[in-house]
Amino acid sequence: MDSQPMEIPRTTPLIAVVILNWNGAHLLREYLPQVVATTDSRISRIIVADNGSTDDSLNYVRQTFPERVEVMALGSNYGFAEGYNRAIAALDNSYRYAVLLNSDAATSKGWDSTMLKYMEEHPEAGACQPKILSYRQPDTFEYAGAAGGYIDRNGYPYCRGRIFATCEKDRGQYDNEAYIFWASGACLMIRRELYTEAGGLDPTFFAHMEEIDLCWRLQLAGYLCAAVPGAKVYHLGGGSLPAENPRKTYLNFRNNLLMLHKNLPKDVRRGILLRRRLLDTVAWARYILTLDFANAVAIWRAHRDFAAMRKNYDTNPARNLLGSAPGSDIDILSSYYLRRKHTFDTLD
Question: What residues form DSSP beta bridges with 18?
Answer without folding.
Answer: 47, 100
